[in-house]
What we know:
Low-confidence stretches: 4-8
CATH class: Mainly Beta
Radius of gyration: 14 Å
Amino acid sequence: MIEAQELVEKRKHKRMEVKDGAFVLLGPHSIKLGRIIDIGMGGLSFSHMARERPSSELYELDIFIIDSDFYLERVLFEAISDFKTHENPFSSITMRRSGVQFGELGHNQVSQLEHFIQNHTIGEV
């Protein structure tokens, strides 16, 4: 996994800024919730509260939108980047931004992801 300073643009797909209300739920063993910042067909980035870095192993995530019936589940991913974005000296909570690359997507997952990008994004990052 790389730090923010080492991040070099290697994406094959455009990243689109996501409208408010879209979240990612990470699993399977440690359920974590994060707000999606941007997304593309190859991966996404999200912000979350964390006390430690996520593992670089391959896991699953779910994507959902508050007040919507959209729910894309069990998307395989690999952590690509992770760094602190905000630290409050009066709190033990650290905000982090993580980037993930999707693993192999099923046909239905690709369709749902395309729908999400077309209908729940603001514009290119």
